[in-house]
What does this fold into?
Amino acid sequence: MGKEVMQNIDGISIYPIISLVLFFVVFSVIMYFTVTLKKDKADHLSSLPLENDDRYEN
Amino acid sequence: MSGQIEKFSYDNRISRMFLYATLLWGAVGLLVGVLIAFQLYIPALNFDLPYTTFGRLRPLHTNAVIFAFVGNAIFAGVYYSLQRLLKARMFNDMLSKLHFWGWQLIIVCAALTLFLGISTGKEYAELEWPIDIMVALVWVIFGVNMIGTMVKRREKHLYVAIWFYLATFVTVAILHIVNSFEIPVNLFKSYSWYAGVQDAMVQWWYGHNAVAFFLTTPFLGLMYYFVPKAANRPVYSYRLSIVHFWALIFIYIWAGPHHLLYSAVPDWAQTLGVVFSLMLIAPSWGGMINGLLTMRGAWDRVRNDAILKFFVVALTAYGMATFEGPMHSLKTVNAFTHFTDWIPAHVHIGTLGWNGMMIFAIFYWMAPRLTKNGKLFSMKLANTHFWIATLGMILWSVAMYWAGTAQGLMWKQWDANGLLQHSFIDTVIAIVPMYLVRAIGGTLYLLGFFIFIYNILKTLGSAQAVHEEEAEAPALVLNNENHSKLSGYLRHRILEKKPLALTFWAAVAILVGTLIEMVPTFLVKSNVPTIASVQPYTPLELEGRDIYIREGCNSCHSQLIRPFRTETERYGEYSKAGEFVYDHPFLWGSKRTGPDLAREGGLRDDAWHFRHMKRPNSIYDDAYDNPPSIMPAYPWLITDDLDVSNTPDKIRAMQTLGVPYAEGYDANAVGDLQEQAAGIANNIEQLLSGTGEDVVADEIKNKEIIALIAYLQRLGTDISKDTNN
It folds into this structure.
């Protein structure tokens, strides 16, 4: 039943295409930013939680 | 270049307050959970009281655990880590306090209203509209406080944990507001703005993403802060965490329709939900691996350190749950797991395994740091807690998976003649022993929780509190900043830019999936082939439906027959989208502890329902040695008068939502209601006369039970009237 309903909507086939394109674009952008992240910045960022030096030891 | 060293203090008091609240509500939520687990094994524990039946306690349990226990724990951890990651005190102490007390007020209101059966009927969104508004306000306070802190930060970069906190804030706000559109009838009653298929789509878009953005993203943020802290090592891969974040929030939002496979929701939306659910395994496991590998080089400490033990099990449970989720989304797996105990098993691996164990680890680490002494009261007790909780988890998870699989397969079993092998009640009897094991497992987990409370309270109570933790950090100096020229305003704008940009892009990431899923779904509204014979409920049926919602019948009974031969054989014709157009809200349910009711109408006579509600086992007396039904009794429905004072308002509210009652029908509604009720009451009197359970029609015609029977007898009957079309 669902299929017939959806076929009645004009231009429904565009939705899967939009989804695929968006998916591809978003991942390309994320990968670009990730790969071009400088090592010293990444190191600085990952050290942030450890910066407030702990007063205590368990 | 760095600025002048500034002295300030971290607000530990707010974390401590949320921590206490977590202990309190955690105990309440888990206690109710254990009670309802035992109710499945010993129905007498429903106590024949409205306030203590499974249908009302189940939403109380889920809301208490998700929003009170896990919610308070999130805030405790966020307030602790956010200040330190930004090297700044929270933006505004008053907002922190308003957030805390507002949230506790919401929890108290939620507990009271759910006890009283005041519920919207939408899973994990049961709270009525005035509380919904309070939630929205308090949530905004939280967001303003968080973003405000980011603006006055002393650390230029925003660590990935903060991204997760921001995404949590923005997405939960959107989910909550969109799903809560409802038309109030009065202060305690409203109807969902959406109906049927649309309501289902919105609800599971909400429900699935409440799991994603309330039970997952805040904990991933907490993981990225507290796991490095406890292991004393930086996160395994910062790059992976970036991919993890964007991939997770982008993909998660699409996956909602996997809760509606084989339902009356369009195939296209179902398939989209499946595809994105499968993809979701990549970022989920990426995050899990990133967390586990952060502990590299610290594995020797796992042997003695309960904190790391809890983290390891939490992350493993996260991995299991996020593997299982995509598997459930495969239609073939979903076909025999959906509606069974497999679903609550999956959810409990998430909440007790992932969220619970994370909370234990974080609190065991954090509580000592809120004191001068800085030592956990007893690591030995923490280890004991760990083993008891883990053993409890193994017990209930094995029992629930076993029960779910066994029942799912039994529902689908044919005999040699091509008939269904098992009646529904036989499949229940088969798994009742598993319900006992499950309840014992839950009791162990609760026992562990009491040890946890004791250990944390001792830790906090035996040392002087540090409410204000002194700290110092250089003021943030912006690139090319010329102190004399850069105005305060401009400086403010630059600092605002990053958190706001992040909030914006996170919102875009989740809105894209939302819109693409929702737009076609709402276009369907004008395209659903309306079934001419599907008519609005009569006033009596509408009141009966509201009783059904009040008592939480949808906790245990679905109203959705899937298009399988095993289901059409058992329950009748499969459910069609056009049948639900007047269902505000939809009541498809997600679990069949009892049988599906989508075509209950006309299956049995009115007297059967009357006797069954009074004493569910009365219908089995001759056939079984032991009473087999685990359904609670509803004696108060037979003694309590139906309140018809709101009936005209309800009709008007429905008219506002587009339900085609005739103009001015509200004035006649009560008259029609009484007429229909008298008919049913007379029918019951006749059917029961001479059976020893005689009733007088005049005495029962005004009772709530009559409305409920009217509703049940209407269910699914409209399409069979469709003989002329």
Q: What stands out?
A: The mean pLDDT of chain A is 74. Chain A touches chain B at residues 1-3, 5-6, 8-9, 12, 15-16, 18-19, 22-23, 26-27, 30-31, 33-35, 37, 41-52, 54-56, 58 (CB under 8 Å). The helical segments of chain A are 2-7, 14-35, 39-51. Residues 14-35 of chain A form the longest helix (22 residues).
